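Protocol step 6 of 9: fold each sequence in the batch and record its structure tokens directly after the sequence line. For illustration, a two-sequence batch is reproduced in full.

Sequence one:
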Amino acid sequence: MSVDGPAGSAPPEAPPVCPRHPDRVSYVRCQRCGRPACPECQRPAAVGIQCVDCVRDAARAMPATRTALGGRVREGKPVVTLTIIGLAVVSYVAQLVVPGFTQQWAFSPAAGEVEPVRFVSAAFLHSPGSLFHILFNMYALWLVGPYLEATLGRWRYAALYLLSAVGGSVGVLLLASPVVTQVDTSWYDGVVGASGAVFGLFGAILVVLRRLGRDARQILVFLGINAVIGFVLPNIAWQAHLGGLVTGVALGAAFAFAPRSRRLLVGVVATAGVAVVLVVLALVKYAGA
């Protein structure tokens, strides 16, 4: 009788493999969960090596780092600002290549009464005959947008931009006359541009900088120069600038001065409250037209 080995001996144990990559043998184990981790799944830790799953779970469990005004600290690019710029650029291209696109989405008090979406859509359009129009607005947006997005957080920043856009259109509506004359045709004149929303951002950043004790003189100078330009140069909807600015200041103040323990509640209530006020102002104006 032949004997291959000691009677009752166990078969050799299989080498450890990475759970995420079963085809890879690894004798290095995670210090937290004890599972094998291949070189691709290893992450250096204070003591030893951790696997990517444990690192991810630990990151989720950690409280989010917040800015002085409650915005979540994030790495990477300003997603909301870039999205707004991307939508404006795509819309501008559509204005150039799609017949009637500008007229379909531009705001006028008469058109807004029938199609309320124009209160917002006009903020993503610009004058097809002036490349400077979109370049200036997008440059201004890039100057203040990323800072506000980081300081306030994404959802409050997006709400600020959109409501300031609506506020700009409401400003045009409130200061327009439904009585058409040879001099005044503002009830039917189309308005396009992100200026109202951008002025809302400048109004908000003015409040935020003051709240944080920082110098806001450059913002005041910018607003003063643009206020003069709006009354001197033709074809500039200063009414939209004013409406957006007032909206941005109001909402920015609510966000900036909210108590630390009630920032979410104040943010939601302020956003809803400003939206309701804008809707009521528009309805009252249309009712009296």
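Sequence two, same batch, same settings:
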Amino acid sequence: MSLVTEVVVPRYGIAWYPWAVQYFFLIALSYSTLWLAAPGLILGKQAWMTTARIALLACVSTTLVAPVALLADLHQPLRFWHFYAHPTPWSWMSLGSFLLPIYLGAVVLLAWLAWRPALKARSHQNDGWFSRVAGWLAWGEWQAPRAVLALVGAGALVASLGIMLYTGFEVAIVKGRPLWNTNWLPPMFVATGVIGGCGLILVLNRITSIRHPDTNRQMLAILVGACVVTGFIALTWFLDGVNAVSGSVAAALDSVSQSAAWRSTAIEGGIAGGLLATLAFVMRRSPARRKAMGWILGLLALHVAWMFRWVVLMNVQTVARNSAGFHDYHVAFGSYGLLGIIGIFGLWLTAVMLIDLFVPWREASSDPQAEPVATAPEATSISASFEGAPSHG
């Protein structure tokens, strides 16, 4: 006599949708571009000022848009107030709900202090609504000492470290998924975030028509270093699992060892990262190649940063938790899929264009009392670079 016991295991849908990928992607670009702006904007290194201006534009635009993706990922955005009505200090997500507004406020205040001299200068011009808006944004003729900008910048950097920690560890503490439950994940988020930040600055250097050669050179140098660090973390992470040093990493590798899709993803990621590092190393030695191809390398860097987060946050959820095998996931067309991704990109692009239209960010200075610097003749506005219109920024 044989007894057969049937076990029915429910299939749970994914908890995090592409909104989460967009948030983790944008917030990583935000704090990494803030770090890249620091040498010129906060420390006052003039050789870094052009890069700092572009980095600050990237930082402000991504910082403004990232919380929108986060609210959308809550599925019921209006329930965000629950984080503040019922705080749980032992939860990284709860801590992040308090850190994020502080960080956003510090970034906006830093940008306002850096852009204010140029806004005041614009307000004195007879430029119609642009002058009026600049006057409103400048908020008077008073002067702010250099120490205030440095202090606010230091506060923003400290807050960015909190954002970096919470976004990494709120995923790494999930013990139900071995592919997440590892201390290697937070530093990998940071390293790939720096790669994406460099890529975004390279792209903005091109599409804003600034095309400063020093910016390309500086970003490619940092990009090479970030790729080396990323490769070292990835290799150590893999060896950790192969040698069963960490139980969670070994379990993670075992859960995907029989998957051809995961093997192809690993190979594609290795090739993309290796190609990025090689091209960045070669191009940084050639001014002509940097000028012509820097923005293309920037797009590749953004692809690497985005795809790492997609694999970690979306592909990992297809690994069955209560049974063997994998669950299929296809990107939907609606707001929880493709349209949401396109919409967030469109919102970011809108933020960049509005800043470019109303804020003379190209004249930003590390000294709030300094006179705005002259804009390079070739540095036209973003809209003008496509339409041929005169620059308002």
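Proceed to step 7 once all outputs are recorded. Observation for sequence two: Confidence is low (pLDDT under 50) at residues 375-379, 383-393.
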